[in-house]
Write a structure and sequence with these properties.
Shape: elongated
Helix content: 40-55%
Strand content: 15-25%
Distance between the termini: 48 Å
Oligomer: single chain
Number of helices: 2
Radius of gyration: 16 Å
Number of strands: 3
Strand order of the largest sheet: 1-2-3
């Protein structure tokens, strides 16, 4: 989307934000992109029915990031539960 640029530490946060922007993508010339560093990995535009994962092995790499982020969140939740007094 023109004029919008955000940086995220987590892939899942970037994906959630991008999906929330989809209804605002109304023009055929607008698109929503997610980059991993300098590499374009995800794009949505009105010219495709669904978002596209770009590049060989990208879907696998992003799936691994998703699993790693989910494991990190779970580990943080366990630490918080252990610290809370009963």
């Amino acid at each position: 989307m023109p004029g919008i640029r955000q940086e995220f530490e987590r892939w899942t946060d970037a994906l959630e934000t991008a999906k929330a922007l989809i209804p605002q993508c109304r023009s055929w010339t607008e698109d929503i992109r997610i980059y991993d560093g300098d590499d374009l990995v995800w794009i949505y535009s009105r010219s495709h029915a669904f978002p596209q994962y770009i590049g060989p092995g990208t879907y696998n790499r992003l799936a691994r990031l998703f699993v790693a982020e989910a494991m990190a969140v779970t580990a943080q939740e366990v630490e918080v539960e252990e610290e809370e007094p009963s």
